[in-house]
C-alpha cells in the first residue's frame, strides 16, 4: 500500500512539473506559425469595413496553427494608432472558439497578434512582458509568423489575452468584478484624470472604463472614492504592492502609454480578498516610443530624446 501511494505521489509530481515547466503556445523560445484562410478574396476590405463599423464583428475563416486545424474561427482587426485602413499588416484578434465552443489551444481561446507598430527591433513588447512578469501577473508573449490566403504577412508579436483563463491562473477566480481602462472615442485626452473619482453616477465613468462583467460599477466607484478621498484605507481596496511594481516598471521603461501617464492600457480585477489588482496591457510603446504626452499637441512630437525620457 505504501509503495502504491509513493508511485501515485511520484506520478502526480511528474505530471504537475510537466504542466508547470512544459512549453506552451507562448514559450519564449518558439516562433509559432498561423495560416488563415478566408473564403472571401476581398478579406482585407471586409476586415476594414468591420473595424470601421466599430461593433467588433468578425470574419469567419479557418486557421492552421503549427499544423493543427481550427475551423470557423472569428477574425477582426484590432488596435488604435497601430491600425490603418488598407494597410498590408494590421494587428489581428483571432477568436478560436467564436463558433465552436471550447475550441482552444493550450487553454487559450483568443489570440492577439500585434503588427510591431513603432518597434523596428521587434523586441520591445515581448521584452517588456518578460520583465514585468517577474514582479506581477502579466501576459505571456512571443512571436508568430502569419499567412493569410497563402500570402506571408510577416512576423507579429503574439500576446496572451487577459481573459477568464488568465484570471483563473493568476487569481484562482475569474468571475469577480473586472474592468478595462479604455478611453472612448472623442474623449479629450489632455483632461483625463487617471483613476480619478468623478462622483457616484456610473455614467461619468463610461468614457474611461469598459466593464467586462455583468455588474461592478458600484465596486469600481467605491474603490476610486477610497483611493482619492481616504488614502489611509487604500490597502483595504487595492493591491498596493502590485501597484508599486507597475509604477516602477512603467517609469523605468518609460512606458508612458499607460496609467502612469494616460487613462488606458490596463485592467483592474477584484480578487477574492476584495482588493482590486492592476494588470498591465499593450506594451508596444514602452522604452520611450510614446510621443503623445499629456498637455501637448498630438502632432507636436515625433519621438522623445534622451533628456525627455530621463
Task: Provide a quick synopsis of the model.
With 310 residues, this protein is of the alpha+beta class. It has helices at residues 2-21, 43-53, 124-132, 164-171, 217-229, 240-252, 306-309; strands at residues 31-37, 59-65, 68-77, 92-95, 110-114, 141-148, 151-160, 178-181, 209-211, 266-270, 276-280.
Q: Can you characterise this structure?
A:
This protein has 310 residues and is an alpha+beta fold. The protein folds into 2 domains: 24-161, no CATH class; 171-309, no CATH class. The chain has 7 helices and 11 strands. The protein has helices at 2-21, 43-53, 124-132, 164-171, 217-229, 240-252, 306-309; strands spanning 31-37, 59-65, 68-77, 92-95, 110-114, 141-148, 151-160, 178-181, 209-211, 266-270, 276-280. It has a 7-stranded mixed beta barrel with strand order 1-2-3-4-5-7-6. The chain has a 4-stranded antiparallel beta sheet with strand order 9-8-10-11. The longest helix is centred in the N-terminal third of the chain and has 20 residues, at 2-21. The model is unreliable at 10-22 and 294-302 (pLDDT under 50).
Amino acid at each position: 500500500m505504501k509503495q502504491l501511494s509513493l508511485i501515485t505521489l511520484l506520478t502526480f509530481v511528474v505530471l504537475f512539473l510537466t504542466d508547470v515547466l512544459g512549453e506552451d503556445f507562448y514559450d519564449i523560445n518558439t516562433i509559432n506559425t498561423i495560416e488563415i484562410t478566408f473564403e472571401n478574396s476581398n478579406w482585407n476590405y471586409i476586415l476594414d469595413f468591420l473595424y470601421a463599423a466599430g461593433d467588433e464583428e468578425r470574419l469567419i475563416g479557418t486557421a492552421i496553427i503549427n499544423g493543427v486545424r481550427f475551423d470557423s474561427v472569428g477574425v477582426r482587426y484590432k488596435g488604435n494608432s497601430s491600425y490603418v485602413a488598407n494597410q498590408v499588416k494590421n494587428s489581428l484578434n483571432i477568436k478560436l472558439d467564436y463558433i465552436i465552443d471550447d475550441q482552444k489551444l493550450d487553454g487559450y481561446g483568443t489570440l492577439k497578434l500585434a503588427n510591431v507598430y513603432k518597434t523596428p527591433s521587434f523586441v520591445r513588447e515581448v521584452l517588456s512582458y518578460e520583465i514585468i512578469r517577474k514582479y506581477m501577473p502579466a501576459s505571456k508573449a512571443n512571436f508568430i509568423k502569419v499567412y493569410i490566403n497563402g500570402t506571408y504577412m510577416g512576423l507579429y508579436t503574439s500576446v496572451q489575452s487577459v481573459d477568464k483563463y488568465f484570471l483563473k491562473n493568476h487569481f484562482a477566480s475569474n468571475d469577480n468584478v473586472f474592468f478595462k481602462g479604455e478611453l472612448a472615442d472623442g474623449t479629450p485626452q489632455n483632461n483625463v484624470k487617471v483613476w480619478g473619482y468623478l462622483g457616484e453616477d456610473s455614467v461619468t465613468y463610461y468614457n474611461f472604463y469598459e466593464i467586462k462583467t455583468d455588474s461592478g460599477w458600484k465596486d469600481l466607484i467605491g474603490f476610486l472614492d477610497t483611493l482619492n478621498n481616504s488614502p489611509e484605507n487604500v490597502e483595504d481596496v487595492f493591491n498596493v504592492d502590485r501597484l508599486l511594481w507597475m509604477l516602477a516598471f512603467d517609469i523605468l521603461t518609460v512606458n508612458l502609454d499607460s496609467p502612469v501617464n494616460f487613462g488606458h492600457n490596463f485592467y483592474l480585477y477584484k480578487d477574492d480578498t476584495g482588493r482590486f489588482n492592476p494588470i498591465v496591457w499593450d506594451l508596444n510603446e514602452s522604452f520611450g516610443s510614446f510621443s503623445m504626452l499629456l498637455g501637448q499637441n498630438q502632432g507636436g512630437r515625433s519621438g522623445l530624446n534622451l533628456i525627455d525620457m530621463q
